[in-house]
């Protein structure tokens, strides 16, 4: 397992866990405080909460330093797409609030808008981090495949004839 890939992977996994925890905390706070509202907004927020919980779980599992964690890039891509969907859900929810542009991520002023924008920002950042993690895993997978399984090494590191 290359050292550089592992040194990059560990901070990415920690960031995935931290960003998901922020989103889970904010959305969980709103789910706990809202009681008799329509089921459709709750379903959106429950989806976001499930994605955050799944991200925390998978991030913790794949934080364990095994090279098999690099081969999980298809799941990393799926989680990234799920985070982009959650970001879209949060953008649609904040569109109905008087909080300004969706890309204006300043956290000053109204506490409700600040929390929503924080959840929106961290869901977008989480999607990007999961995508970067998937790209690193994909790079590692094809780098390992290109090493030439079935060949023997000669002296001084040159490739030899295929093993019989």
UniProtKB/TrEMBL annotation:
<feature type="transmembrane region" description="Helical">
    <location>
        <begin position="77"/>
        <end position="97"/>
    </location>
</feature>
<keyword id="KW-0472">Membrane</keyword>
<dbReference type="InterPro" id="IPR008253">
    <property type="entry name" value="Marvel"/>
</dbReference>
<feature type="domain" description="MARVEL">
    <location>
        <begin position="9"/>
        <end position="136"/>
    </location>
</feature>
<feature type="transmembrane region" description="Helical">
    <location>
        <begin position="44"/>
        <end position="65"/>
    </location>
</feature>
<dbReference type="Pfam" id="PF01284">
    <property type="entry name" value="MARVEL"/>
</dbReference>
<keyword id="KW-1133">Transmembrane helix</keyword>
<feature type="transmembrane region" description="Helical">
    <location>
        <begin position="124"/>
        <end position="144"/>
    </location>
</feature>
<dbReference type="GO" id="GO:0016020">
    <property type="term" value="C:membrane"/>
</dbReference>
<protein>
    <recommendedName>
        <fullName>MARVEL domain-containing protein</fullName>
    </recommendedName>
</protein>
<feature type="transmembrane region" description="Helical">
    <location>
        <begin position="12"/>
        <end position="32"/>
    </location>
</feature>
<keyword id="KW-0812">Transmembrane</keyword>
């Amino acid at each position: 397992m290359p050292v550089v890939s592992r040194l990059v992977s560990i901070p990415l996994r920690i960031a995935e866990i931290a960003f998901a925890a922020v989103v889970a905390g904010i959305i969980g706070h709103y789910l706990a405080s809202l009681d008799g509202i329509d089921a459709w907004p709750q379903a959106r927020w429950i989806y976001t909460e499930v994605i955050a919980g799944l991200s925390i779980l998978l991030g913790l599992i794949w934080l364990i330093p095994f090279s098999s964690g690099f081969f999980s890039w298809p799941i990393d891509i799926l989680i990234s797409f799920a985070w982009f969907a959650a970001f879209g859900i949060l953008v649609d929810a904040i569109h109905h609030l008087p909080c300004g542009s969706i890309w204006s991520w300043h956290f000053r002023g109204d506490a409700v808008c600040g929390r929503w924008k924080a959840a929106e920002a961290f869901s977008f950042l989480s999607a990007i981090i999961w995508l970067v993690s998937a790209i690193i895993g994909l790079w590692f997978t094809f780098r390992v495949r290109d090493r030439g399984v079935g060949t023997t090494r000669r002296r001084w590191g040159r490739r030899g004839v295929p093993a019989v």
